[in-house]
Amino acid sequence: MKKETMNIDPVQIEAAITEKTKVIAVVHYAGVACDMDAIMALAEKYQLWVVEDAAQALMSAYHQKPLGTIGHFGTISFHDTKNLQCGEGGALLINHKKSCRTCRNHPRKRYKSLAV
Ligand SMILES: Cc1ncc(COP(=O)(O)O)c(C=O)c1O
Questions:
Q1: How far apart are alpha carbons 69 and 33 in whole angstroms?
Q2: pTM above 0.85, yes or no
Q3: Residue nearest ligand 1's atom 2 by CA
Q4: Is-contact 82 67, C-beta < 8 A?
Q5: Ligand 1 lined by 57 (C-beta under 6 Å)
Q6: pLDDT exceeding 70 applies to what percent of the chain?
Q7: From 20, 22, 82, 109, active-site residue
Q8: DSSP E strands: which ranges in the chain?
Q9: Which domains does the chain have, with CATH numbers?
Q10: Tens digit of pLDDT for each residue in 33-42?
Q11: Distance between alpha carbon 54 and the CA centroid of its chain, in Å?
């Protein structure tokens, strides 16, 4: 953990990567951004997916980019303890074209998608 942000430390992420690692999942705790430049560089270096837990980070940004839109996937919570609420809801942000098509064409068509 980085003392300044209380968020995950990219140096510790890299030390924990093994041949079995597939995903780097980061939490932007209390709306404070993780070090996304370093994290995305690690993802590129080791060919890993990045999932941002932006449940607490709606309206927060990193270099003018909304949190949850920098990694391949971002998650947002609309739980009633969050800034924007709908009881028990959430959103999955997809920042990867092929995965976006896969979700949109899912046969169950259970989820509403809003392509931007
Ligand atoms: C950082 C973080 N991730 C995930 C969750 C879970 O969100 P939800 O209750 O919408 O599944 C929360 C909710 O408290 C949270 O704060």
A1: 12
A2: yes
A3: 55
A4: no
A5: no
A6: 92
A7: 82
A8: 23-27, 49-53, 61-62, 65-66, 73-77, 90-94
A9: 10-104 (3.40.640.10)
A10: 999 999 999 9
A11: 6
Contact 32, 8 (CB under 8 A): no
- Token code pair at residue 12: 């510790």
* For ligand 1, atom 3: residue with the closest CA: 55
* Measured CA angle at 39 (ends 11, 23), to 5 deg: 100
Q: What is the pLDDT of residue 70?
A: 98
> Rounded to the nearest whole angstrom, what is the distance from the C-alpha of residue 55 to the centroid of ligand 1?
5
Chain centroid to CA 116: 17
Ramachandran angles phi, psi of 98, nearest 5°: -65, -40
Per the listing, tokens 């510790």 go with 12
Cross-strand pairs, 77:
90
